[in-house]
Amino acid sequence: MAPPADPIALAAKARRGYVEGLLRGVPGVVKAVADGARLMLDRAAEPAVQYKRRDVVLDLQKAIPAWQMGITRQLQAALAGGGMTASRTGDLPPPGRAAAMTLVDNDTIENEILSSRLALAMMDRASWEFTDLRSRMLSLERRDELDAGDVLRPHVLARIVASAWQAAGLNHDTWRVLQDVLHDEFAHFTEEAYHDTNRWLVQQRVLPEVDLRPFIRRSRSTHGGSTAGVLGGGGGDGGGAPRVTAGVL
């Protein structure tokens, strides 16, 4: 079945809805990371490790408002720009320009490494959903590939998360302590956002032959929502530690 007459406008609405869904879900995923950090304190460990975990929890509690606001502002900037791009391509020089690398500070390089690992974790979890969404968007926009800085790409959100983390005064050591929590929460966060956007596009008759795979949505009692509801999709519910719900959407 053919998509509606104005595919470019439909693609723009899908991209905008994806970002709006992320914005709605930011408070929840940030709170889930904080809850995951506190849960680490319950695990047995050597005293030095426990002291470090306590420091991480305290640092995160202080920085959460600034971190959340930083993520929100960068996503809002992407939305204001039409939702197409949201990465700073000038952060690192192009490959092969070794001399220019001396002008890039170590923090920027380390930030890029950590955000790249986060993006890989997102793709490990959400690769099928992203592949389907990419196919639908390319079909609508009649092109061969998404732009390198397209806000739909996982590495763009990963860079936003990492740069907001640094701007909030959180350091790379704190990130490494929480890396498993960050990877898990943001991988699920992204997968849900992709799934909801795919579902909306299927409702608009965009490549329905690309199967909308069964999806198990996590619900968290630690916050009041998730990325559910992108473009009018289903909603998440709240209530305890992160868990997997049995209902398949």
Distance between the amino and carboxyl termini: 23 Å
Mean pLDDT: 81
**Mind telling me the C-alpha Rg?**
19 Å
Most strands sheet:
2 strands, antiparallel
Helix content: 55-70%
Total number of beta strands: 2
Class computed from helices, strands and strand pairing: mainly alpha
Q: Compute the number of helices.
A: 7
Point out poorly predicted stretches: 89-102, 221-230, 232-249
Beta-strand share of residues:
under 5%
Q: What is the chain-wise order of helices and strands?
A: HHHHHHHEE
Shape: elongated
- Trace the largest sheet across and list its strands: 1-2
Describe this structure in words.
The protein is mostly helical and 249 residues long. 61% of the residues lie in helices and 4% in strands. The protein contains seven helices and two strands. The chain has helices at 7-40, 47-80, 98-101, 106-141, 154-167, 172-177, 179-203; strands spanning 216-219, 243-248. Strands 1-2 form a two-stranded antiparallel ribbon. Helix 1 packs antiparallel against helix 4 (106-141) and helix 2 crosses helix 5 (154-167). It is elongated. It starts with 6 loop residues before the first helix and ends with a strand.
